Amino acid sequence: KGVAGDRLLLFRAEADPTFGGVAPEPSTKNMQTVLQALQSRPEPLKLGVIIDPDADRIRFTDGAMEIDMNMFGAMAYHYLHEKKGKQGLVAKTVATSNFANAIAAELCENTFEPAVGFKNFKPVINQALVLFEESDGISVIGHTPEKDAYIGLLLALDMLLTLRLNLGDYLAEIRRQYGAYYPARGGIAVSQMGDELKATLAGLKKYAAGAKVRVGKNLQTIDEVITIDGRKIIFADGSWLMIRPSGTEPKIRFYVEARTEKGKDDLLDAAKEMLAEIGLAKRNL
Question: pTM for the complete prediction?
C-alpha cells in the first residue's frame, strides 16, 4: 500500500561527498536526529535507522532507546528461530555481545565465534541463521555472504509488523527470558607496533582461568580465556572483557560486557588497569 509521505522521514539523503563534516557511521552521535524525530511522533509503532554510505552497517532505534548490533543481532536470531520456526546456529564475532550465546544455549543450538571481521564467517555461511558483528554488520542464511544494512532493515520491519511490538519492547521481552547483557567498548592510542606490541601484550597471559581480577569493588574469578583474536577474559558471572590490537591503526581496542548497566564502567576501568600494568596505559587515579 506504500507509506504516507509524512510517515517516512529521510535525513541527510542528499548527495554530499563531505558527509556534512561528520564521520558517516552508525553511532550514538549520529543517531540523535532520528531519536528526536521519533520521540515527537504519535504512532504506536516506530522504527528509525542510520545506515553508512555503502549500506553495509546499520543501527536502530524505536524513539525510546538505541539498539546496536550487539542486541539486534541476538534479537534477529531469536526472531528467526522462535517466531519464524527456523533451526540452526548463530554466528557472531568474538568481540560481540554474548547475549546471542545465551539464547543459543537455551535453544540447544551452537554458536560460531570467530575473530573480528565478517570474512571469518565463511565456514558457516550456509549454516548460521544470522551472522553479525558488534560494528553493526549483519547478514542471514540464504542472503549475501557480506554484511548488508538493508537485510537488517527488512528484518526489523518484519519484527514490528509480525509482533506488533517496538524493538525496545521485544528486547525487554527477550531479556526477561534470557538475562540482560550490557556491552561497551573503548580504546587507547599506542606508540608500539608489530612484534614489539605483540611482546608487550604477552604480559596479559598471566590472566588465565582461575586467576582473580579486581573489577570495581569486587574480585572476579576468570572462568575462561579465548585467544583467537587478542585476549577475551570471561568471568564466572558471565561478564567479560577483551583486549586486542587494532588491525587498521596504532591503537589497542578493548571490549567489555557487564550483567548490569553500571558494571560496564568497572570493566572498562579493569581493562585499562591491565594495560597500565604492562606499560600501555596510564593508571587510573
Answer: 0.92
Mean pLDDT of 230-255: 93
Domain 182-277 has CATH 3.50.50.60: no
Domain ranges of the chain: 1-180, 182-277
- Indicate the CATH number of 1-180 among 3.40.120.10, 1.10.10.10, 3.30.1050.10, 1.10.490.10: 3.40.120.10
CA distance readout (Å), 12 to 15, 34, 95, 259: 8, 11, 30, 36
Distances from the Cα of 238 to the Cα of 133, 205, 235, angstroms: 19, 20, 5
Helix extents (H) in 111-234: 149-163, 167-178, 194-201
- Phi and psi (nearest 5°) for 241? -140, 150
Report the mean per-residue pLDDT for the chain. 94
In order of 158, 159, 190, the CA distances from 164 in angstroms are: 9, 8, 48
pLDDT at 283: 65
